[in-house]
Amino acid sequence: MALKKNGFADFVVGVELMVIENSNQNNPSIDDVIIGNIEKIILKYNNFFDVIILGDVLEHLIDPWTTLKKLKLYLKDDGIIVASIPNFLYYTNLRTILLDADFKYEDSGILDKTHLRFFTKKNIINLFQENSMKVTLITSKFDEEKGKKYFLSKIFKSLHKFFVTQYYIVASKKGD
Prior knowledge:
This protein has five helices and six strands; from the N terminus they run αβββαβααβαβ. By secondary structure, it is α/β, with parallel strands linked by helices. It has a single domain, classed as Vaccinia Virus protein VP39 (Rossmann fold). The protein has a four-stranded mixed beta sheet with strand order 3-4-6-5, with helices on one face. A two-stranded parallel ribbon has the order 1-2. It is globular.
């Protein structure tokens, strides 16, 4: 696991919904793998973690608001949550919905069939703030770093949000 190999972590815990054959669940660098629904299980790690990583997790949950509140309990007082969340405002979604009148789920991507929740940057910030967390960094994955869309968004700042595919968030436990 890169976190331990590169000296970023001493102890790594993974939570998976189910056992997945031939996966990273048996990686010896992971100290504890917990199988279960993160929305329902209680972990034994209160006030324990420096960092909780939610890489493309929150959009798959029935109630990400309550789950985030629960996960906050597992953080040390100076702990952070690092999350990545797809941007619903991405222009191809809006084009399909507005012009084609079609909310078409896909096998992958922003409209992935397994996504239960959809977020914009504003909604993401609210999600963390409603849980008394302070968003200390929010950055994005732009769908291209050159070309017409990139230059349009540089000229017209309000267009940027339509070309972002993913937001990356760092939020501290202390919301003050």
